[in-house]
Write a structure and sequence with these properties.
Number of strands: 5
Distance between the termini: 27 Å
CATH class: Alpha Beta
Number of domains: 1
Number of helices: 3
CATH topology: Peptide Deformylase
Largest sheet: 5 strands, antiparallel
Helix content: 10-25%
């Protein structure tokens, strides 16, 4: 189901709760909402649709990917980026990393590790910031 975009900064500033199998339907809502906004959005975190859980979805080189309980475990190559967000007006500067290694769970809640670079890494960092309650 396509959900309304959350703009309440107090809610968006909350640290997201861990995800469990009962939260799987929220991931589908997140994918549906991202797809509805694909012209101006490349990633979303669950709190952007009013669900305070550690779920992110993003465009991974043309295909949407879902991560449950993502954590960045390694980073290298710092740089400054300027980003926008559907939940916030305007753009803001953010410190990002060129390469990140992410620990997460797949839809079967199996642990996974994957390294991302460049644009995809930047998207993931933005969405994990949402999970941490960090607003750019």
């Amino acid at each position: 189901m396509v959900r309304e975009i959350m703009r309440d900064e107090a809610f968006l500033s909350l640290k997201a709760e861990p995800v469990c199998p009962e939260d799987l339907p929220a991931a589908q809502d997140l994918l549906d909402t991202l797809n509805a906004h694909k012209d101006g959005c490349v990633g979303m975190a669950a709190n952007m649709i009013g669900i305070n859980k550690r779920i992110i979805v993003f465009d991974n080189e043309g295909k949407y990917m879902v991560m449950f309980n993502p954590e960045i475990v390694k980073r290298s190559g710092p740089y400054e980026a300027e980003e926008g967000c559907l939940s916030l007006a305007g753009t803001r500067k953010a410190k990002r990393w060129q390469s990140i290694k992410v620990q997460y769970q797949n839809e079967r809640f199996q642990p996974r590790f994957k390294t991302f670079t460049g644009w995809t890494a930047q998207i993931i960092q933005h969405e994990i910031d949402h999970c941490e309650g960090v607003l750019i």
